[in-house]
Amino acid sequence: MRKGITLGIALFGLALGSFGLAQVSGDVIVDGSSTVAPITIGVAEEFRSVEPGINVSVGISGTSGGFRRFCPGETDMSDASRAMKASELGSCAQNNVQFIELPVAFDGLTVTVSRHSQIFSGPACLTVGELKVLWRPESQGIITRWNQVRSELANRPIVLSGAAPTSGTFDFFTEVINGQTGASRTDYFGTEDDELLARQVSQEPFGLGYFGFAFYVNNVDLVQPVAIDPRKETLDELRQTDSSATCTGVLPAPETIASFAYTPLSRPLFIYVNANSAARPEVSAFVDFYLSEEILGNEIFMSDVGYVILPEEARELTRRCWANRVTGTAFAGNFAEFAGQNITDILETKNCG
Question: Model-level pTM?
Answer without folding.
Answer: 0.84
